[in-house]
Amino acid sequence: MKGGTRKRGKTWSYYFDMGTVNGQRKKKEKGGFSTKKEAEAALAEALNQYNNAGTIFTPSEITVADFLDLWFEQYVKMHCKYNTQTDYIQIIEYHLKPRFGTYKLRTLTAAPIQEYANDLKKQGLARSTLKNIILTLSSALNYAIEPLNYIQYNPVDRIKFPKYEQGEGRQEIHHFIPESDMKQILERFPESSPFYVPIMIGYYTGVRISECFGLTWDHIDFEKQTITIDRQIVKRNFGDVRDSLDKGRERMDKSEWYFQTPKTESSNRVIRYGTTLQKILKRAYRAKQMNRLQLGSHFTDYYLKPETDEKGNTIFRLFGVPHDVPVDLKRADLVCVRSDGSMISTDSFKFVCRVVRHELHIEFNYHSLRHTHATMLIQAGAPIKDVQERLGHADVQTTINRYVHDTDAMKDETVEIFDRITSVS
Q1: pLDDT tens digits for 31-73?
Q2: Nearest CA to 235 among 58, 47, 83, 87?
Q3: Can you tell me the distance from the alpha carbon of 253 to that of 267, in angstroms, rounded to the nearest whole number?
């Protein structure tokens, strides 16, 4: 069996014929080699392995780096949402490959994984970040056990996660916003600011940031005072998900905004809202219609172009055109826009977070609004089941563990409750 090499752009590739399967010719090709000599050497090794084992690698000899690539291509891309894929690829490339990539998969034991987990804690990583890294490795290794049968057990099952003391390590922000701080934020971003509406939607409904910035006016029912959540906005790269590793302008030039279904079925929901948000939304709706009429061709309208993702699901690419340009596609009448109709995005909102932190000295991100919303509802006595459904959680325990902030008022209420139910003195 013969093969060959060829140059593609600035790198070299090798290829060879793998024979016929079901009447179809199968060919193996791999690129990325710096020189022709490297490609030829890799070709010789691949041919030797193929001829001797009928595959491009012997499972017992595959490295962790190559296996992680295989797991990502065969499992993650086929079963995970795009944002989850980007999370995984960053953990793989920035954490797992540098530490374990050269290990043979069959030689990876609990000892080096335990050492790495301990090192991550010493570096000051938050407990949740450390767990995400190690559990990503665990998920990949479970795939190596079943269905691939490359290894017999998962070494991650034999490690102990480092213990964190109260307040130890860098903590992720799940910040409850007192009413006095909220007033300061709204003074800095009043109704004349394009960020006012998304702030108020988050505060009064507890939606996720990707849900808020994916809202269109046809998903808001003014008569019933409800918001329907059945999609989210995400930034996707033109090419492979690995392009998400690019930095700065290089990454931006490869990115587009898309609408896709929420991460979980429980995220699909209808949220009721009150009179305060109703007035805010109606004013915003009227202002957008007026701006569209007054600005004409200087106003941006957005449309949805259906495309297919890597799993065969339909997603919709968002693109803007001047108002007077006819487009034969469904219009996306976005809620969160500037006065000229141009969208504000989850990226744009990072400006708000920086201003609130550095100018107002208030710890803040969009999730703080969601966290505060849930905490205030439960503090006021709202049924936990209703809060769970409002937030789109699959179970009540998630609501309690993640978003219910134990305020001083809640602690005082607990004491008062016990005093009311006992008369022992």
Answers
A1: 888 888 888 888 887 777 666 544 455 565 788 999 999 999 8
A2: 83
A3: 30
Do 152 and 213 belong together in one domain? no
Question: Has residue 394 been placed in a domain?
Answer: no
Nearest to 283 by CA among 367, 187, 190: 190
77 and 123 in a single domain? The answer is yes
> Residue 82 in contact with residue 309, Cβ under 8 Å?
yes
- Quick one: 120 and 200 in the same domain? no
Q: What pLDDT, on the 0 to 100 scale, is given for residue 54?
A: 46
Write the Ramachandran bin of 169: left for phi over 0, alpha for psi from -120 to 50, otherwise beta: left
Q: Are 173 and 363 in contact (CB under 8 A)?
A: yes
42 and 67, same domain (yes or no): no
Q: Is the peptide bond before 322 cis (omega within 30 degrees of 0)?
A: no
Confirm whether 423 is domain-assigned.
no
Q: The whole model's pTM is what?
A: 0.66
E strand spans, 140-266 = 220-221, 226-229, 232-237, 255-260
From the list 342, 372, 294, the residue with the least C-alpha distance to 194 is 342
Q: Of 305, 323, 342, which marks where a domain is finished?
A: 342
The span from the CA of 198 to the CA of 349, in Å, is 9
- Is 338 buried (19+), middle (13-18) or exposed (0-12) by CB count in 10 A? middle
